Amino acid sequence: MDTMRDRFAPVALRLLDEDPRVAVVLAEIGAAGFVEARRRHPDRVINVGIREQLLIGAASGLALTGMRPIVHTFASFLVERPFEQVKLDLGHQGVGAVLVSAAASFDWPAGGYTHMAPGDVALLDTLDGWTVHVPGHPDEAETLLRHAVAAGDDKVYVRLSVQSNAQALPVDGARFHTVREGRSGVVVAVGPMLDAVLDATTGLDVTVLYAATVRPFDAAALRRATATAGADIVLVEPYLAGTSTAVANDALADVPHRVLGLGVGRRELRRYGTVEEHVAAHGLDARSLRERISGFMTGTRMPVRA
C-alpha cells in the first residue's frame, strides 16, 4: 500500500490542474515529487529552498492575492520552526493556507529529534481558527486534502504519517465516526491510532469513536456517545498526550466525567530505533493501550509512561 505522502504529490498535481487558484509552496523537502507539476505549472509550484520562515511568508503573500496555497515540509519545519510566521503572516493577516506535513511525531527516527514534532497540534491549538485533519489511511488523506483546498480561504493543517490503519473509513472533514458501541466508556481513536485501539479494546464493553478531524472537535458526537456509554473517556492521539483533553472537558462541562489523554510522552527518547519501537516506548501499541484503558476504566493503577 502506498503511504499518505506517496499519495500527496499526485493529488496536489490534479488539484493544480483543476483549480487555477491552487499553488504549491515547498522548502526543498519533497521537491522531487513535484517535477512534473513544476513542468506543467511553473508559475504555481514554488520551491523557496531551505528557508522555512520564507515558506510561510511566501504562502501568505500568495493567499493575499487570492491564491489557495498548499504548503509542504516535515512537521517540525512547517509548524515549529516558522511558528511566528504561522501566527502573524497567516493568522494576524487573516489569510489561509493548507499546511501539509510529513514525518508526524516520529516517522523518521533516524532523523533524530530535529525531525520529530509530537507537539505540532498542541502548538496550533494556541492559535485561533485552525482546522486540523489527522487522516489514518492514504485514501482518507486524499479526501481530506481535497476538503482542505475547497475550504474557502480557511487555515487548515493536514498531518500525514507513514503509520496507517489497514482500512479507510468514510471521512467528511468534520464528524467523528462510530466504529464500535459499548456501555462502559468511550475511547476516541485519532487517525492512525484506530487499528491499535480496536485491537486493545477487543472484548471490552466500550464505544470506539474514530476522529480523522480533531479541530474543530466533534463535541456533539462525544456527548451522544457518553449518553449511552458512560462518561469515562480515553483519548488516544498520535501526538502529544493530553492535546485534546481540554476540548473534551469543554464538551462535557455540564456532565460529571473523567478523561484520560494517551499519546506521545514529553520525555525525549534519544535512541533512533524504529517507528514501532517509539510506538511501544510511548505506550501506544495495542498491548500497552489495553492495560492503560482497562486500568482507567476499572480504576486500577496504570504503568507510568514517558
Describe the 3D structure.
InterPro entries: PDH/Transketolase, THDP-binding, Transketo_C/PFOR_II, Transketolase-like_Pyr-bd. GO terms for molecular function: magnesium ion binding. It is a single chain. Helix content is 37%, strand content 20%. The strands form 2 sheets. The protein has a 7-stranded mixed sheet, sandwiched between helices. A 5-stranded mixed sheet has the order 7-9-8-11-12, sandwiched between helices. With 306 residues, it is of the alpha/beta class. Helix 1 runs parallel beside helix 7 (138-150). The protein has 2 domains: 4-159, Thiamin diphosphate (ThDP)-binding fold, Pyr/PP domains (Rossmann fold), CATH 3.40.50.970; 177-298, Rossmann fold, CATH 3.40.50.920. The chain contains 12 helices and 12 strands. The two termini are 31 Å apart. The protein is globular. The model has no long low-confidence stretch (mean pLDDT 96). It has helices at 4-18, 35-40, 52-64, 75-80, 83-92, 120-124, 138-150, 194-200, 219-229, 245-251, 275-281, 286-298; strands at 22-26, 45-47, 68-74, 98-102, 130-133, 155-159, 177-180, 186-190, 207-211, 213-215, 232-240, 258-264. Strand 11 (232-240), helix 10 and strand 12 (258-264) form a beta-alpha-beta unit.
Stretches with pLDDT under 50, minimum 5 residues: none
In CATH, the homologous superfamily of the largest domain goes by the name Thiamin diphosphate (ThDP)-binding fold, Pyr/PP domains
Q: List the helices and strands in order.
A: HEHEHEHHEHEHEEEHEEHEHEHH
CATH architecture of the largest domain: 3-Layer(aba) Sandwich
Number of helices: 12
What structural class should be given to the helix and strand makeup?
Answer: alpha/beta
As for the CATH topology of the largest domain, it is Rossmann fold
Strand order of the largest sheet: 2-1-3-4-6-5-10
β-strand number: 12
- Average pLDDT over all residues: 96
Rg to the nearest angstrom? 19 Å
For the terminal residues, how far apart are their CA atoms?
31 Å
Shape, please? globular
Fraction of residues in helix: 25-40%
Largest β-sheet summary: 7 strands, mixed
CATH class wording of the largest domain: Alpha Beta
* Overall number of structural domains: 2
Strand content: 15-25%
Domain Transketolase-like pyrimidine-binding: 2-167
Protein name: Transketolase
GO molecular function, one term: magnesium ion binding
InterPro entries: PDH/Transketolase, THDP-binding, Transketo_C/PFOR_II, Transketolase-like_Pyr-bd
